[in-house]
Write a structure and sequence with these properties.
Layout (H helix, E strand, L loop, with lengths): L2 H19 L22 H5 L12 E13 L6 E2 L4 E16 L3 E14 L7 E13 L6 E13 L5 E18 L4 E15 L5 E15 L2 E14 L4 E17 L2 E14 L6 E13 L1
Length: 292
């Protein structure tokens, strides 16, 4: 495997891991957090396009992802320190389209349907619908990537179908990645600022998020990843401020060209000015992903 191929492979696997790890990280009050959740979403292409590990081929491309994950959490109600453990099933289907716009710009559009089905805390089960439209700019390979994203979403209670929360988010950010160790390793970092206009308005907020991580190709079909994420959220209509710290480690195994398995673990500490919103939790899960 040559250097370029290894860089591309690590970039792709980092995308799959990192996008999954940060899914739902915008602090949606209704969404499920495994400790890998809630701090400003990034799509797979956003991660894949960082710096010199950009896998863009100059051609437009459709993608379809279907995944299912069995997850354990020590804190299903997201309040206090553990004590409400549960097992969940998390199915997701995503369709996306990516296209370059000239030499420096690209555009990515995706739509997703996801759900969380709780074992014991069935009243917290939900189904969610979201989309991401991202325009990014990279001056040249090896330099940071700038991007702006619009993200509408809606989450409904699984049993009743009643609206739990919905919002439109406006996100701006920068990210960067650098390959080393003959292309087998990638260090990545990013910062974003997001504003969400929500219904109910108690969920309206702004959020600053920073991420630092490392991915390493252990074998040709096995990649490990670890990252730290910090987020500060200000709920503008509620007098609430949250400081959130997340540590996560992941392994991803490629069974076949389009078929992947993942093992994830995470720890989250959320410190809030609202006592009921402060919590700690540990999560671990196994997942399978089909990607075309």
């Amino acid at each position: 495997m040559n250097f370029t191929t290894m860089k591309t492979r690590v970039a792709f696997l980092t995308a799959l891991l990192f996008a999954g790890a940060l899914q739902g990280q915008d602090g949606k009050t209704y969404s499920y957090s495994t400790g890998t959740a809630e701090a400003g979403k990034q799509s797979a292409n956003e991660i894949e396009d960082i710096g010199e590990i950009n896998d863009a081929q100059g051609q437009s491309k459709w993608r379809v992802n279907a995944s299912g994950r069995a997850q354990y959490t020590s804190n299903a109600i997201l309040s206090g320190n553990h004590g409400s453990d549960d097992f969940l099933f998390l199915p997701t289907v995503e369709v996306g389209y990516h296209t370059p716009l000239g030499k420096h710009f690209s555009f990515d559009l995706s739509a997703k349907i996801e759900s969380a089905i709780f074992g014991d805390h069935s009243d917290r089960s939900f189904v969610g619908y979201s989309a991401l439209a991202t325009l990014d700019y990279t001056f040249k390979p090896g330099l940071p990537r700038l991007y702006v994203t619009v993200e509408p979403y809606r989450y409904d209670a699984f049993d009743s179908g009643e609206l739990a929360t919905s919002a439109v988010g406006f996100i701006g950010g920068v990210d960067w990645g650098r390959g080393f160790n003959a292309g087998r390793s990638v260090v990545f970092a990013g910062y974003s600022f997001a504003g969400y206009i929500a219904d109910p308005s108690v969920d309206s907020r702004t959020a600053h998020r920073a991420v630092l991580g490392l991915a390493h190709q252990i074998r040709s079909n096995l990649t490990a990843q670890a990252y730290y994420a910090y987020q500060y959220s200000d709920y503008t209509d509620f007098g609430r401020n949250d400081h959130r710290n997340v540590l996560s480690g992941n392994l991803i195994y490629q069974f076949a060209e389009h078929f992947f398995g993942t093992l994830n673990t995470s720890w989250v500490n959320n410190d809030s000015t609202q006592n009921h919103a402060s919590y700690q939790g540990f999560g671990a899960g196994l997942g399978l992903t089909l990607q075309y």
